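Consider the following input, taken from an annotated entry for CBS domain-containing protein (Neoroseomonas alkaliterrae).
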Amino acid sequence: MRARDIMTTDPITVPPETPLEAVAALMADRGISGLPVVDEEGRLVGLVTDGDLMRRLSAKEDKPASFFATLLGATADQAMAYARAHGRRVRDVMSTNLATVTEDATVEEVAHILETKRIRRVPVLRDGVLVGVVSRADLLRAVMQPLGSGAEQEASDPRIRREILARMRAEPWISTRFVFPMVKDGVVSFHGFLSAQETKTALRVLAEGVPGVKKVVFDTSPAPKMMIGMP
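Applying the prediction step yields:
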């Protein structure tokens, strides 16, 4: 699944010259916490969030730089802080160092950006032009979609077993030489040698992620000590 499949298209945007009072009113009226900032050609130039507006208020409480800090060159930071605290338009408070993705970005890549950057949304660009936004809510809907569509897929036991085996072979923490699944009426039972409870938990999660699985049980034995490389 790609960003294009889950993004919000035609998001509400504002130009850099928009007064902050209008932005605050728009956010409150629409129940949104961030707005992309675009130029006349639709190119993304920034992002203004409720956090930017809050920082504008808190910046007014910042103490002036000390005499020694001024000598050491802190005046540029102080000047920027003043502009953010007293600015009246979006261009004065918006964030410009943005993380963005293209329409072809996978949902895993988008999720990684949101998590590592600790942000709530990421703009989607096509040749620099904003075409959508992916939010955490969009990602959650994407995560839930397979759960809702699983009943519509073929739920045959052979298909379930094939998919579980394929997923197991793709993981480094489990080996199908020692553990194998059997499926009957959607109930998955694992057999073989398995010692670690953590591996059982991971296998259960793996199997439950396959559409059509109703239940997961284990009929495994602890691994003999002479066996090496056991999960």
